[in-house]
Amino acid sequence: MTMYLTPEKLYPLVSALLFAVLVGMTLGGAIVVVCTSRLVRSVSGLALSSTGLAGLYYYLHSPFLALMQILIYVGAVCVTIMFALMLTDAHGEVSGQPRETIKTVAALLAGLPLAVGLILLIAKARWMPPAVQVNAGTVPDLGQALLTRFGLVFELISVVLLLSILGALVVARSGRRN
Amino acid sequence: MVSLIHCSDQLSVYLVIGALLFAIGFFGFLRHRTLIGMLISGEVILSGAVLNFMAFSRFLAPDPVTGQVFSLFIMGIAAAEATIILSILVAVYRHYRSVAARDLKDLEG
Q1: For chain B, which terminal residue's Cβ has fewer other Cβ atoms within 10 angstroms, N or C?
Q2: Residue B109 falls inside a structural domain
Q3: What is the pLDDT of residues B56-94, one digit of tens each?
Q4: For chain B, how many structural domains are there in total?
Q5: What ipTM was assigned to the predicted interfaces of this complex?
Q6: Which run of H or of E encompasses A77?
Q7: A60 to chain B: which residues are within 8 Å by CB?
Q8: Cβ distance B60 to A127 under 8 Å?
Q9: CATH number of the domain at A12-92, out of 1.10.3210.10, 1.10.10.10, 3.40.50.2300, 1.20.120.1200?
Q10: Is the Cβ pair A171, B87 closer than 8 Å?
Q11: Which of A132, A161, A172 sits opposite B90 (nearest CB)?
């Protein structure tokens, strides 16, 4: 009996491989963020990690959130951080740090138990799936919820964003006098 | 093998990824020496939290829209927060000529 890779068999395999690649991008990007000392690489790692995370949102049945993740994180946050990096001239190494290894080891000692403890908790927990789902969480459902039930919060978020833009302008300008 | 193929359909896989992102971001937050590095690590922590919300809303919530809306709001708040922090950084850099955390030690009224 020969093994034929029919589309029905191939689809889960490709899907699992793609999922593994996306998980690798997410975690690998995050590791690049924290392990490099050059901040430009750090920002690039954040962009890579956000792209992988957007793919994971696709697997969680929310394509709108995936596109928003790319738009907001890769398109806005990373670009803004990159601009701040150029403005503050902080892209190089902060030199003359003899305590660097001690600090890294201490941070590792703080972060590793956190990861291990959380993973043990997740392995122990038992979750109850819901008895019924009122909708499928599609993009039309999301839009309807945003403009009806969450309409007030939606508008408040816009006000917060506007205020943060104005506040950023005021704060960044105020240091200019001296 | 079956569970490996279908691991994108399991809640705990996403929770583990979220926990790892949180721990990695925490590690970076302690390790980085400039304020910008700490900000980027903070974004990684937020990503882990958002992934948790999305996973719970997909697998456990009776209304999957709620988690998506909440994640959208987290993203909006994170963008606003990053903007404010970066403008503060620019102001700090004008004053101290540095954004390394150890140089910012004197408080003045």
Answers
A1: C
A2: no
A3: 998 888 888 989 999 999 999 999 999 999 888 888 888
A4: 1
A5: 0.89
A6: none
A7: 14, 54-55, 58
A8: yes
A9: 1.20.120.1200
A10: yes
A11: A172
